[in-house]
């Protein structure tokens, strides 16, 4: 029983084909597929991509749709953390509504799965989790949403946070978050022991924000690798940002990347312009699962971001000085297959039998789509059309 | 005799006003200005900016509108130069048509003045200049266009190039270009002596591409400063890119920035993600005239770029880790007033008496416009509407 046929699309830029969807999965690909009474969409020769994967964002605290807030905070992470925790209350930020707003923007831009961190702290308790979990429930048919319990304000330095993290994981957070075990928590052993203990006890993966630069970050990386191996957590640990891998010591970083690959630790980089970043091609060549994301957007940290993972591929490619088409395509792959690998999404891709999470965009080549950022012509989630011509077919309000 | 009245606009985010234009200049600002039979546009409360300034690009060699060319070239500058010189002939690139295409894109995005480098070399002679000069003539009423004679393939290393540069300046190039006196030309004294001699003899300003990194770039900078002072060329010399000023030595770079300010040398940075950049805020605080540009776009060097100088302000701000509204506004200022200062554009701005080069965009604040990149609602050049709702009212074909 075919539900949907999309005619004349070019999967990842290859020869034009039709694609038939049944039961939320790709049922057939080929020319002149029979419609059998199913809904038919004309792809018009557009590029066909698998759904874009937003593997690192903070849905609970975007200011999208709220009054404009002038940013006057200092640029160091500690100041941004403290300012945000205070201002969320002043502004009366609603995590359910704000996360819905960003989810709708993401769907309009072709994202079919999101991993979001949510703040867990002693000021707001589990309010962020509850709000984003409500959004996860509300949009369950149109997007996959993973939630990371994230101790944004620190864990060892704020008594009561560990217990809240434990409770968050019991109440539905999917992943154990961590944050700068040295630079924010000032207790790398304590912090990482708690993170890995929570992961083991709850049987859940780990995703650690590691902004720590240079030698400090490499030191922490060593401790993360040691614990990943000791607990047998290959394929279950992601290190996000990993600025320290941008250190200007190619041989040393190269050796560490091989070690990271060997331990089955995964990486996330947003490709930020103003700080060192992990060398993308070297990391991919080492065999590391590598994903990307928008990070916080239009929030109390910074005004930037638009939830467009096609643009994120461009940013990531440009940040890594990639100009050749074949390299730009690898950056796009990070925002599709890389994200799916890190998030552990089953049956992701463009093969018959895969879930029908699909995006159509105009472009002669994949690289042209990455640099021109065409409107998403059609976005399909599990076989259902969820956005068309840049507009989501679901609402946030 | 009023020609145009735009009602209800907020100049640089300030209180709403009307603006009246006569004879290509701003004739009056205030509420309820009389129309006196002039054309009336409703600004609808939009932000009013002075025309955006594209102070560094390469109009002669974009591939816009041509067949897609897969980029397979190595990433070093020398390889890119040689590949481009060869491929321009293979592709039959037409500098007049290609520059027209990019100019139209720029106008649609609110740019009212462009400084373009054009390649001068012994393979193509003055063909680039002739093509872009034809475009300058063709669009004279709708955009200001300055042309830099640019020895892209090197000058001392290619016999006959100096004579071509001289001829280009006689035939209408406005500015003397230069390029990596050490790294490309391997003769800093010879290269800079020629550049400054051409400038003095033709009475024209200088704009030098300086990609040279670290100590090498600082060495060349010293030679440029010395010659600028010796020839009394304060306010006439621009150093573009200036990656060496991104060196991680704050005190030393700070002292050099003060010296640059003292010599009246100006800077251009596109805010590239993957290389060091001059520290924007420190340079502005030193009093340096600072502009920005798209650089080469959709060309044989790299596939990126969209000629949007509002987005360039965003890129520049993000690259310099600027998140506070007041800082983001300084990056926007670089793409308006900074560009006008470097290009020496007379009567630029939003005061009565200034030329009516105007852009209207939606946004609650200037920073919101920089991060959301709204379509340009209206673009006015010398009092004439040249673009509306993101579309130029002139054509390239």
Topology:
2 copies of one chain form a homodimer.
Chain A (H helix, E strand, L loop, with lengths): L3 E8 L5 E6 L2 E6 L8 E12 L1 E6 L19 H15 L3 H14 L2 E9 L7 H12 L5 E7 L10 H10 L4 E5 L8 H15 L3 E5 L3 H17 L6 E5 L8 H14 L1 E4 L11 H6 L4 E2 L17 H11 L5 H19 L14 E4 L4 H7 L5 E4 L2 E5 L2 E2 L5
Parallel strand pairs in A: 1-4, 5-6, 6-7, 7-8, 8-9, 9-10, 10-11, 11-12
Antiparallel strand pairs in A: 1-2, 2-3, 4-13, 13-14, 14-15, 15-16
Helix pairs in contact in A: 2-3, 5-6, 9-10
Q: How would you describe this protein?
A:
- The structure is a homodimer of 397-residue chains.
- With 397 residues, the first copy, chain A, is of the alpha/beta class.
- Chain A folds into two domains: 4-50 and 348-388, Urease, subunit C, domain 1 (Roll); 52-343, Alpha-Beta Barrel (TIM Barrel), CATH 3.20.20.
- Helices cover 35% and strands 23% of the residues of chain A.
- Chain A is built from eleven helices and 16 strands.
- In chain A, helix 2 packs across helix 3 (127-138) and helix 5 packs parallel to helix 6.
- The longest helix of chain A is centred in the C-terminal third of the chain and has 19 residues, at 325-343.
- The model of chain A has no long low-confidence stretch (mean pLDDT 97).
- Chains A and B meet through helix 9, helix 10 and helix 11 of A and helix 9, helix 10 and helix 11 of B.
Sum this structure up briefly.
The structure is a homodimer of 397-residue chains. Chain A has helices at 77-91, 95-108, 127-138, 161-170, 188-202, 214-230, 250-263, 280-285, 309-319, 325-343, 366-372; strands at residues 4-11, 17-22, 25-30, 39-50, 52-57, 111-119, 144-150, 175-179, 206-210, 237-241, 265-268, 290-291, 358-361, 378-381, 384-388, 391-392.
């Amino acid at each position: 029983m075919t539900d949907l046929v999309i005619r004349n699309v070019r999967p990842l830029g290859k020869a034009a084909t039709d694609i038939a969807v049944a039961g939320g999965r790709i049922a057939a690909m080929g020319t002149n597929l029979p419609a059998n009474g199913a809904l038919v969409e004309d792809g018009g020769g557009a590029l066909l991509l698998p759904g874009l994967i937003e593997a690192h964002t903070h849905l609970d605290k975007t200011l999208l749709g709220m009054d404009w807030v002038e940013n006057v905070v200092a640029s160091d992470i500690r100041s941004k953390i403290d300012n945000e925790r205070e201002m969320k209350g002043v502004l009366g930020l609603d995590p359910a509504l704000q996360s819905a707003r960003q989810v709708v923007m993401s769907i309009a831009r072709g994202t079919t799965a999101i991993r979001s961190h949510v703040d867990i702290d002693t000021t707001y308790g589990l309010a962020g989790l509850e709000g984003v979990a409500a959004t996860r429930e509300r949009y369950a048919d149109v997007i996959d949403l993973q939630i990371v319990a994230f101790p944004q304000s620190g864990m060892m330095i704020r008594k009561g946070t560990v217990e809240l993290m434990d409770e968050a994981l019991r109440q539905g957070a999917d992943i154990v978050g961590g944050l700068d075990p040295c630079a924010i928590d000032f207790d790398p052993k304590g912090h990482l022991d708690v993170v890995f203990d929570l992961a083991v006890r709850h049987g859940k993966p780990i995703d650690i924000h590691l902004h720590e630069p240079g030698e400090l970050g490499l030191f922490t990386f060593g401790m993360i690798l040691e614990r990943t191996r000791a607990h047998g957590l290959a394929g279950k640990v992601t290190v996000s940002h990993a600025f320290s891998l941008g250190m200007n010591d190619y041989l040393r970083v190269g050796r560490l990347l091989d070690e990271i690959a060997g331990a089955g630790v995964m990486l996330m980089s947003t490709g930020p312009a103003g700080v060192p970043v992990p060398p993308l091609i070297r990391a991919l060549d080492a065999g590391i699962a590598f994903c990307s994301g928008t990070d916080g957007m239009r929030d109390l940290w910074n005004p930037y971001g638009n939830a467009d993972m096609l643009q994120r591929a461009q940013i990531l490619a440009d940040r890594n000085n990639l100009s050749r088409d074949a390299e730009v395509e690898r950056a796009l792959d990070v925002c599709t297959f890389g994200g799916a690998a890190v998030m552990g999404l089953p049956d992701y891709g463009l093969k018959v039998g895969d879930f029908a999470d699909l995006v159509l965009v105009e472009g002669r080549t994949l690289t042209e789509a990455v640099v021109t950022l065409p409107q998403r012509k059609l976005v399909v989630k599990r076989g259902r059309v969820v956005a068309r011509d840049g507009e989501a077919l679901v609402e946030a309000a």
